[in-house]
Amino acid sequence: xxxxxxxxxxxxxxxxxxxxxxxxxxxxxxxxxxxxxxxxxxxxxxxxxxxxxxxxxxxxxxxxxxxxxxxxxxxxxxxxxxxxxxxxxxxxxxxxxxxxxxxxxxxxxxxxxxxxxxxxxxxxxxxxxxxxxxxxxxxxxxxxxxxxxxxxxxxxxxxxxxxxxxxxxxxxxxxxxxxxxxxxxxxxxxxxxxxxxxxxxxxxxxxxxxxxxxxxxxxxxxxxxxxxxxxxxxxxxxx
Length: 239
Ligand code: OAD
Hints:
Elements: E1 5-10, H1 12-16, H2 35-38, H3 41-46, H4 48-61, H5 69-84, E2 87-92, H6 98-102, E3 107-108, E4 111-117, E5 124-126, E6 148-151, H7 161-169, E7 173-177, H8 189-195, E8 199-204, E9 216-219, H9 222-236
Parallel strand pairs: 1-2, 1-7, 2-3, 7-8, 8-9
Antiparallel strand pairs: 4-5, 4-6
Bound molecules: 2'-O-acetyl adenosine-5-diphosphoribose.
């Protein structure tokens, strides 16, 4: 049997059980707020104070949350893959650091809240200390007076696209966890996996927009459903 190759994509739903707000739906970050006002390059140019405050508040919120059993189960699953010589790639749309705190090394295709980037010299660096919503941070390298959050805004190109598409192109199993399947290009990964003949699995509280009858859908809360889904996947693929 050919060695299995797994690609797992996570979205806001995997961190919901840790207390991080999702984007869509009741209580989501986009409820009562226009994403164009805080999550676009135009918004940053027009009203940087509003955008800075929005992301600083989310950076502060990270200090009070921790990984849940779904994040942890992915670490155990990656270990099993490594031991069996199977390939495993974790891609996340999330800008929180809960995967890292659990022990994973994901590709953050939408950037990271803990990093700030300079539009003067284009360097991004981790910053966990400057959390005041009212004070901008100056670039320590080139002196540019206002670092931006290192997150991918609407209208910008997500990170790691070549690496991600190459992995999907060679995967035998594609798993989407906690994502509504409406924001592209990430929402297209499931169909890409299906198209290349991979077995596809979807775990989420609600049916995502991009769900297809061929996908194996596991409804429920990630903290409960993901560990059992990954156990089953490991067993079925002989890990
Ligand atoms: P969404 O907020 O769009 O969707 C969250 C998904 O998680 C929904 O399908 C929910 O049903 C599901 N969900 C909620 N609670 C859950 C739980 N406890 N367990 C499992 N699933 C749960 O978040 P994303 O799909 O990640 O992009 O959003 C995609 C992108 O849209 C984000 O990365 C962000 C946003 O605008 C940018 O900012 C560029």
